[in-house]
Amino acid sequence: MKDASAPTAPQTIYLKDYAAPHHWVDTVHLTFTLAPQATRVLSRIAFVPNAENPGDLVLNGEQLTLLSLRIDGESVEYAVTDTHLTVAQADLPSGAFTFEAEVEISPQTNTALEGLYMSSGMYCTQCEAEGFRKITYYPDRPDVMGVFTVRVESELPVLLSNGNPVASGKGWAEWHDPWKKPAYLFALVAGDLIAHNDSFTTMSGKEVDLNIYVRKGDEDKCAFGMAALKASMTWDEEVYGREYDLDIFNIVAVDDFNMGAMENKGLNIFNSSCVLASPETSTDATFERVEGIIAHEYFHNWTGNRITCRDWFQLCLKEGLTVYRDQMFSGDMRSHPVKRIEEVLQLRARQFREDNGPLAHPVRPESFVEINNFYTATVYEKGAEIIGMLRRLVGDEAYYAGCALYFDRFDGQAVTIEDWLACFAQVTGRDLAQFQQWYSQAGTPRLSVTEAFSGDSFTLTFTQETPPTPGQAVKKPQVLPIAVGLIAADGTEVLPTTVLEMTQASQSFTFSGLAARPTASILRDFSAPVILTRDIDATTRAFLLAHDTDPFNKWEMGRMLAKDTLIAMITRNEAPAGDYLDALKAVLTDDSLDPAFRALTLGLPSQDDLAQTLFDAGQTPDPMAIYEAREALRHALAHHFADVLPDLFAQLDAGTFKPDADGSGKRSLRMSVLSLLSLIDAGKAAQGLFESADNMTEQAGSLLALLGAGKGEEELASFYAQWFHDRLVMDKWFMMQVATAAPLEAAQIVAKLTQHADFNAKNPNRFRAVFGALAANHAGFHAPDGGGYKLLADALIDLDSLNPQTTARLCTAFETWRRYDGDRQSMIRDQLMRILAKPDLSRDTTEMVTRILG
Ligand code: ARG
Ligand code: ZN
Q1: CB neighbour burial string for 609-639, b if at least 16 within 10 angstroms, e if fewer
Q2: What number is the ipTM of this complex?
Q3: 3-state SS of 79-111?
Q4: Peptidase M1 alanyl aminopeptidase C-terminal domain location, by residue (predicted)?
Q5: What is the 370 CA–ligand 1 centroid distance (Å)?
Q6: Which of 159, 176, 338, 840 has the fewest CB atoms found within 10 Å of its own CB?
Q7: Which of 130, 263, 297, 715 is catalytic?
Q8: Rounded distance from Cα 788 to ligand 1 centre (Å)
Q9: Nearest Cα residue to atom 7 of ligand 1
Q10: Cα–Cα dist 327/329, whole Å
Q11: Relative to the alpha carbon of 376, which ligand is closest?
C-alpha cells in the first residue's frame, strides 16, 4: 500500500463541477463489532462500474484505521490519504466486483458527534451530511444508493439499524433495509434502552410497529411524541397520499446531538430535547417543537428518503419542502394564523438576519467548503417560503398534482431542483424559469408600494429591488405573489384576498368599480419573503389592526406600531404614543380574539430586530439605548394596563394542563400578562404562581417573569433543587439566567455558569443553553467593554477542538458585526482574528469566520 500523504488542504466544492461517480453501489453488507475505543467495521460492497463515466474507484474515508482490503477476494494496490482511498481503474476487474474491507474506529473519543459516537453509554450515529466516511470507506455522496444489510454485535440489549429486523440472538442483531438509500441515511443504535411501543395501520391496511427508545427514567416523556408520530402518518396519507413503507418505525432519543433530529430510514435519531415531553418538565413551546420535528423527520421518508438529493447543493430540495410540509401539518393541528405569525417571526429573526449580512447565500448555494455550514435558515426556512410561493402562484390543485407527479416520476432517485420544478411546469404549462431564480439569487427583496385613487379606480404601484450580497452585485426582479385585500371605511371588505403576480422591477395593478377610496391590506399572510415598505400613517395602521380580516396583517400592523414607537423612543427620546398604548390595550382586552393571537400582538420586536431596522435606516444602532427603550416601553405598558392585568391574569387560568392550541394560547397570554404585572406588583403574582404551578410552562414562565423584573433569586435556587437531576430542565435553568441578565452583568453571569458543576461544553444542548443565550442577549453580548465578545470567542476556541459543527454554528453570533460602531467592530474583528489564528482550527469554523470577516 502507498502511505498516507500530507493532510489535504480544505477545498471549495462547486455545483458547476458536479459529475456522476465512476461506480454505483448495488448491495452493502456491514458487520459492526462494537467496543468503545476499538469498534470493528467489516464491509462487503457490490460495486458496478458507471459505463457513462468510467474511472478509478474513489472512496471517502476519514479517521479510519484500515485493517484489511480485498477486491473479489484478492489483495490489490490502493492509495490512501487522510480523506480518500483510491484503486486505479487499471487494477480493478472489468465488470462488477465485490469490495471488502475492515476498519477500526473509536466511538468513545468521537466528540464531534459525527459518524459513530457514544452518548450516555449508548452508541449512535449521525451521518448527514458526510459522516458515513468516518465509519468506513465508501462513496459518501447522495447520488450513490445501495441496499443495506447490517449486523450489529454487542452485549448491549437493544441493537438497531435501518429497515426491518431480520434475525437476532444473544449479543447480535441483523437488519435489512429493502429500500436503496444513500449512506447519509444510514443509522445504528446500541444501548440499554426502553421502548415506548405502539402501532399504526396504514391506508392500505399494513400494520407498522412504532417505538420510541429512551434511557431509563425517560419512559414517561414519550406519549406526546408517539401521538404526534401517528398524527403525522395519518396526515401524510390524507394530504399527500403518502404511505409508510416498512414494518417498523423507530425513534431514538439521544442526549448529545448537534442538531434537532435526523431522518435515517426507519430509524430516526432525535436530540432528546426534540422528542421528550411531559407537562411537568416541558413548556408549551417544547410540545409544539416536538410535534413539528417528529412530523418533519417522518415526512422526510418521502421527501428526502424515497426521493433524495443528487448532491448537497440540492439540500433545499428535501429541507425546504419538508419544512413547508411540517408547517402545514402544525397549522392543521393547531391554528394556521398563529403558526404563520410564529413562522414569520422566526424567518425574520434568523433568515433575514442571515440574508442581510456576510453569510447571505442562495437557497441553492453554488459552492461550499464544509456542507454542514449550509444547514441554514436560508436553505430551510426560505426554502419553505419558496414552496409556499409556488403553491400560491399555481393554486392548490396544481400544487398537489405537481407533487403527485414528482413522487411518481422520481421515486427511488436522487434528483435536482430542476427536476422538482419541471413537474409543476408540466402540470400547469407555465414557464418557471424566472421563478427558479428564487433558488439562485440571494438577498431579501425590498418591496415598496404607492397607492392612488381616481374616479372609481384604485391603483397599487409596486417597485422591487434586492440589495447586493456577497458574490452577487446585481440582482434581477423576482416573481412575487402579493396577496392583497381592500377594506372600506366602515370595515367591510370590498375585495377579498387576491394574489397579484409581480414579475417586473416596477408594476401597477388597478381595481375598478369602487365607490370610495379603500384601505389596502398588502402582503396578506406574508405571501412572499420580502421587506415591505409602505408610507402609512399610524391612524391607518390602527384601522387595519382593528379591521383587517387577514390575521397576519392584523398582527403586522400592531408590530409596526410597536416598532415605530420604539424607534421614536430610541432615536428621539420620545415617550410612547398614547394611541399605540390604547390600540394595544384594545387587543389585550378583546375576548373575541384568540388568546394566542393577543399574546403575539403584545410581544415587542426583539432588540436584534430593532438594531437591524435602525441600521437599514442608515443609523448606527446603540445596543444600550435599544435595551433601555425596550425596558421603558415594558414599564409603560405595565402602567397603562395596570387596571386590567390582575383580572386577566386570574381569568386566563387554563385549568388542567393540556398541551393543545387552546391551552397553550391561554397560557401564553397569561405569561405575557404576568411578565408585565411583575413590573408593578413587586413580583407577588409570579411568586404565587411559581409556588403553585403544576406544569413547566407556568413554573418557568413565572420564574422568567421574576427574573425579567430583577427578582427571582430564591426561586432560581429552589428550581435548581427541584430539577438538578433532569438535563433538559437544567438547560432551561442555565438559559433563563443568561437570557434575563442585565447588559452589564451578562458576561459575568456566563463566566460563573461555565464554572458550575453541571456545565459541560461537550454537550451541545448545554453549551447552547449558555452561549446561545449569551448571543441572544443583545445588549449583554454587545456590552460596551467587549466582555461578551471575548467570552464567546474563548469558548469557541476551546470547543472547536472538540466539536467543529457546533462551534461553526455559534460563530453566527458575530455575523451582524458591521451594523455597529467602530469600537465594537474593531473589538469583534479582533476576536474573529483570534479565532482564526488558532492552530489546527477546523475547516467548519475557518470557513464561517472567513466569510463573516468578508
Ligand atoms: N436532515 C436533518 C433534518 O433536517 C438535519 C441533519 C443535519 N445534520 C448535520 N450535521 N448537518 O432533519
Ligand atoms: Zn429536514
Answers
A1: bbbbbbbeeeeebbbebbbebbeebbebbbe
A2: 0.98
A3: EECCCEEEECHHHCCCCCEEEEEEEEECHHHCC
A4: 540-853
A5: 14
A6: 840
A7: 297
A8: 29
A9: 128
A10: 5
A11: 1
Strand ordering across the sheet containing 158-161: 115-119, 122-126, 188-191, 158-161
Question: Distance of CA 44 to CAs 61, 138, 182, 578, 776, Å?
Answer: 15, 10, 16, 74, 48
- Counting ligands in written order, the one closest to the CA of 321 is 2
**Do 105 and 67 contact (CB within 8 A), yes or no?**
no
- The Cβ of residue 8 has, within 10 Å, a number of other Cβ atoms equal to 10
Pairing of strands 23-33, 39-49: antiparallel
**798 C-alpha to center of ligand 1: Å?**
24
- pLDDT, average across residues 577-592: 95
pLDDT at 6: 53
Give the whole-angstrom CA distance, residue 197 versus residue 421: 39
Average pLDDT over residues 222-247: 99
What is the rounded distance in angstroms from the CA atom of residue 504 to the CA atom of residue 480?
9
Pocket-forming residues, ligand 1, beta carbon under 6 Å: 126, 128-129, 258-259, 261-263, 296-297, 319, 372, 375, 805
- What is the rounded average pLDDT of the residues 345-361? 98
- Which among 113, 114, 127, 128 is the best mutation to test ligand 1's pocket, defined by most ligand atoms within 8 Å of the CB? 128
Which stretches does DSSP call E strand in 216-327? 248-254, 261-262, 267-271, 308-309
Three cell numbers at 396? 392548490
- 80-130 pLDDT tens trace: 999 999 999 999 999 999 999 999 999 999 999 999 999 999 999 999 999
**Cβ atoms of residues 304 and 323 within 8 Å:** no
Q: Using the mean position of ligand 1's atoms as its centre, give its distance from the Cα of residue 469 in Å.
A: 26
pLDDT tens for each residue of 225-237: 999 999 999 999 9
Cell matching residue 225: 411524541
C-alpha 258 – ligand 1 centre gap (Å)? 9
Query: 636-680 pLDDT, tens per residue?
Result: 999 999 999 999 999 999 999 999 999 999 999 999 999 999 999
Calpha distance 567→90 (Å, rounded): 70
Ligand 1 pocket mutation pick from 140, 259, 297, 316 by most atoms within 8 angstroms of CB:
259
Which helix H or strand E contains 151, and what residues bound it? strand 146-153
Residue nearest atom 3 in ligand 1 by C-alpha distance: 262
Closest ligand 1 atom to 319 CA: 4
Distance between CA 71 and CA 74 in Å, rounded?
A: 5
- Dihedral angle, C-alpha 653, 655, 658, 659, nearest 10 °: 10
Q: Among residues 530, 531, 609, 526, which one has the least CA distance to residue 567?
A: 609
Q: In the predicted model, is pLDDT for residue 1 greater than 70?
A: no
Counting ligands in written order, the one closest to the CA of 317 is 2
Among candidate residues 335, 353, 434, 821, the one with its CA nearest the CA of residue 619: 821
The position carrying cell 449521525 is 126
> Which ligand places an atom closest to the C-alpha of 804?
1
Rounded to an integer, what distance in angstroms lies between the CA atom of residue 738 and that of residue 780?
Answer: 9
Nearest protein Cα to ligand 1, atom 2: 262
- In the DSSP assignment, the letter for residue 818 is G
Under 8 Å between Cβ of 371 and 312: yes
For residue 111, what are the contacts with CB-CB under 8 A and spacing of at least 6? 117, 762, 802, 803
Place of cell 413539528: 292
- Asked if 285 and 303 count as a contact pair (C-beta separation under 8 A), the reply is no
Residue 2 above 70 pLDDT? no
Q: Are strands 446-454 and 414-415 parallel, antiparallel or unpaired?
A: unpaired
Please tell me the distance from the alpha carbon of residue 344 to that of residue 322, in angstroms, as a whole number.
17
